[in-house]
Design goal:
There is one protein chain. Helices cover about 85% and strands about 0% of the residues. It is an all-alpha fold. It has one domain. The longest helix is centred in the middle third of the chain and has 37 residues.
């Protein structure tokens, strides 16, 4: 049983590293560099979308695995559902779950904002400068929210790991 738990924890941590690390890289490293580049905004947005789509191919499965392994591990620790609301571990877990739901909602909105038809309009330069600025601002805000939520969730995971 100990080796299975260790493997499960390793998978969970690896997926967290992919999701949080990638989100931090895009938000804290890549986006600021992109902002300072002299290329036109359309080209910068195209590059950001390409990087985001590439990241999502790895990050979305990692996020799904992260949620599945998290739910399974929580179930192992909280054998009875009443412990969810009657223990500090359970209370922190509830907060973490709420933040994960907020993260998923934010990510879904983010993906919806940069859907395929919008990407095609950017690529074919069929979008006004004003629309590009609004789109850029939305992408930045949603990205920042994603990073902040991810880091807070990671912190709560550390608190839970230490016993709640």
């Amino acid at each position: 049983m100990a080796i299975e738990q260790a493997i499960l924890t390793w998978i969970h941590i690896t997926c967290a590293a992919i999701w949080v690390g990638g989100s931090l890289f895009i938000g804290v490293v890549f986006a600021p560099i992109l902002k300072k580049m002299s290329m036109p905004i359309e080209e910068r947005l195209q590059l950001m979308i390409k990087v985001g789509r590439r990241f999502n191919k790895l990050a979305v499965p990692a996020l799904i695995i992260l949620m599945v392994t998290g739910i399974y591990q929580s179930h192992l620790i909280l054998q009875k559902s009443d412990l969810l609301l009657e223990s500090s571990y359970g209370n922190i877990l509830v907060i973490k779950i709420i933040l994960v739901v907020a993260l998923i909602a934010t990510f879904a909105i983010h993906v919806r904002v940069i859907r395929k038809d919008v990407e095609e309009k950017i690529m074919s330069k069929q979008i006004s400068d004003n629309q590009l600025q609004v789109l850029r601002k939305k992408i930045i805000i949603l990205g920042e929210i994603t990073v902040v939520l991810s880091v807070i969730i990671l912190f709560l995971a550390a608190v839970l790991n230490s016993g709640g």
